[in-house]
Every structure is written in structure tokens, then in C-alpha cells.
Specification:
43% of the residues are buried. The protein is an alpha/beta fold. Helix 1 (14-24) crosses helix 8. Strands 10-9-8-11-12-13-14 form a 7-stranded mixed sheet, sandwiched between helices. A 5-stranded parallel sheet has the order 1-4-5-6-7, with helices on both faces. The chain folds into 2 domains: 5-147 and 291-311, Rossmann fold (3-Layer(aba) Sandwich); 149-288, 3-Layer(aba) Sandwich (Rossmann fold). It contains 8 helices and 14 strands. It binds ribose-5-phosphate.
């Protein structure tokens, strides 16, 4: 790509954006991203972007709707300022768990968000571990979908756990758990999860031998922590030794951090796709960075190089 590389960020995760900018040795573009007195989002780019290859970095974490609006309005500003190409870098894609109708008269919010991003001006999307990979198909523009499981797995391998079993807390997480297991070794156990309501998880059945073993529960998202805590309960009842967890996106909504702190889990590994909330204890949480992965992907997109090597 001929135009110069420019990076911008909204307010969702400035630390991650700064880390990416440092690796790329490209300063973050100056932009005012704030609010008018009536709370409407206000954006003004303070740099020329004409003819540039612009990357706008913004994970869609809480407050989700505000961060979505910031991103949409930034994309609009960059497009109207005549950038040559615009990539929305979305380390955490929100509304991804609303990717299909589970009952009549429900929306498909993940698709609506895809439409909004494209309408606002995104020419490409760069994202990390979509909750449902099929969301890629909601876009008619290129989507580069990175996976952070290797980062979590490499860290877990360094713990040197013996007689390890990797646990998938529901059937939807089996592929990720299996990939994790392939990288760290050990066995695999799969829990059957039911959701009587969106905020409630129930677990009674599990396939796999875990008694006397160290276990790592692997998931894509920890939100309310309901899934994780129910899995811990079941695993304890089955006589496991030490319990760890690894998840890509540490949403930790509500009082998840406190409930995790009070649980018998040893440690929880997440990435920095989104910042840790500051409303609870984080002693058991260990954050691994995806900044080098995203920086490498941005550089390769900018130079029109293949990034499939980063998908493995
Ligand atoms: C569900 O399908 C996801 O993979 C996660 O298990 C879920 O989103 C976690 O949410 P919570 O922490 O609220 O149970």
C-alpha cells in the first residue's frame, strides 16, 4: 500500500493502542475523541490523513455502545478526510453473542454492527477471536481474524503442569479447547452447559476423566463469570487438584472479579484485547498482551503481505 501508515484510537483501550504504536514505531495520530455537553460523541482528527493507510484501534468493551459510537464516528471522520484505505482494528467484537436468532422476534445484532461499520467507512476489519467465526461472513469487506489461543497456550505450557486436563466449559468452546490441548498436551474434558436464561448457566454432565488432575478451563469470553464458576463447582465435585482458566477476552462484568477472587481457582489468564475493569480484585488475573500480534498484522496489511502465517 502506497500511502503512509497512520494509527488512531478511541477511548476503549489506549494502553493497547499505545503498545501497538510503540512496536510499529509510529506515533498514535492526534485526535479529539470526547463528548458534547448533551453526551453525544464528539470527534475531530487533528492530523491530515489524505491518501493514508489508516488503522483505527478500538475494542468494543464497556461502555459498549459508547465505544461503538466513537469507532463509527472516527471511521466517518477518516473517510471524509480522504484516507486511501481504512482498517477498523477491533480486538474485541461486541454483540458477537447475538449472532443468530434463538427465538422469534429477536435481532441479529452482530450483523447490524457489521453493517454499521461498513457504512461508516471501514474498508477492512482486523479482529481477534470472534465469538462465532461465522461473523466474518456478515461482512462483504476483507476480515482478518487473528487467534490469541497460541499466546495463552504458550503461557500455560511454561507452568509445567503435570497430568493436565484442558476443559471446555460448553460444547461451543470445544474447538478452542482442543487447539489449546494440542499445544499444551494432556487430556480433554467437555462439560455440557445449559442456559435457562441469558445470565444463568447450569452444568451437570461432563465427558472426560479429571479426578486428581490439574485442569485449565478454556473459553473465549469471561463475562459475568457464571460459566467459569459453574465449571469450577462441577470440577471440584469431580475431585480435581488445581484449577486454572484461560480466556481471550476478560470482560468481567458485574461482580465477576470478586466472585472469581473468592472462588478456589488458582489463576485466570486473559489477554489485553480489553482493559481490566477497576471494580474488583485482580490478584488472580494475569494479563498477556496481544499487542505484538496486532502490530505484526497491521504491518503486514500495510505492506500487502500475507498474514495467514499469524493464523496458525
Ligand atoms: C458462551 O458461549 C461463551 O463462550 C462464554 O462461555 C460466555 O460468554 C461466558 O459468559 P459468562 O461469563 O457470563 O458465563
Amino acid at each position: 500500500m502506497e500511502g503512509r501508515l497512520q494509527l488512531f484510537t478511541g477511548n476503549a483501550n489506549p494502553r493497547l493502542a499505545q503498545a501497538i504504536a510503540s512496536i510499529l514505531e509510529t506515533p498514535l495520530g492526534r485526535a479529539e475523541v470526547g463528548a458534547f455537553s448533551d453526551s453525544e460523541t464528539r470527534v475531530r482528527l487533528e492530523e491530515n490523513v489524505r491518501g493514508s493507510d489508516v488503522f483505527v484501534i478500538q475494542p468494543l468493551c464497556a461502555p459498549v455502545n459508547q465505544h461503538i459510537m466513537e469507532l463509527l464516528i472516527m471511521l466517518d471522520a477518516v473517510r471524509r478526510a480522504s484516507a486511501a484505505r481504512i482498517t477498523a482494528v477491533i480486538p474485541y467484537y461486541a454483540y458477537a453473542r447475538q449472532e443468530k436468532k434463538t427465538a422469534g422476534r429477536e435481532p441479529i445484532s452482530a450483523k447490524l454492527l457489521a453493517n454499521l461499520l461498513t457504512t461508516a467507512g471501514a474498508d477492512r476489519i482486523l479482529t481477534v477471536d470472534l465469538h462465532a467465526p461465522a461473523i466474518e461472513g456478515f461482512f462483504d469487506i476483507p476480515v482478518d481474524h487473528l487467534r490469541a489461543t497460541p499466546i495463552l497456550a504458550a503461557h500455560a505450557r511454561r507452568l509445567g503442569l503435570e497430568r493436565l486436563v484442558v476443559v471446555s466449559p460448553d460444547t461451543g468452546a470445544v474447538a478452542r479447547a482442543e487447539e489449546f490441548r494440542r499445544r499444551v498436551g494432556g487430556g480433554l474434558a467437555i462439560i455440557s452447559k445449559q442456559r435457562p436464561s441469558p445470565e444463568m448457566a447450569e452444568m451437570h454432565e461432563m465427558v472426560g476423566e479429571v479426578e486428581g488432575r490439574d485442569v485449565i478451563i478454556v473459553d473465549d469470553i469471561i463475562a459475568s463469570g457464571g460459566t467459569l464458576l459453574k465449571a469450577i463447582e462441577l470440577l471440584q465435585a469431580r475431585g480435581v487438584r488445581h484449577i486454572f482458566a484461560a480466556a481471550i477476552h476478560g470482560v468481567f462484568s458485574g461482580d465477576a472479579l470478586r466472585r472469581i477472587a473468592e472462588s478456589p481457582i488458582e489463576r485466570v489468564f486473559v489477554t489485553d484485547t480489553i482493559p481490566l475493569p477497576d471494580n474488583g480484585p485482580v490478584d488472580k488475573i494475569e494479563v498477556l498482551t496481544v499487542a505484538p500480534l496486532l502490530a505484526e498484522a497491521i504491518m503486514r496489511i500495510h505492506k500487502d503481505l500475507s498474514i495467514s502465517a499469524l493464523f496458525t
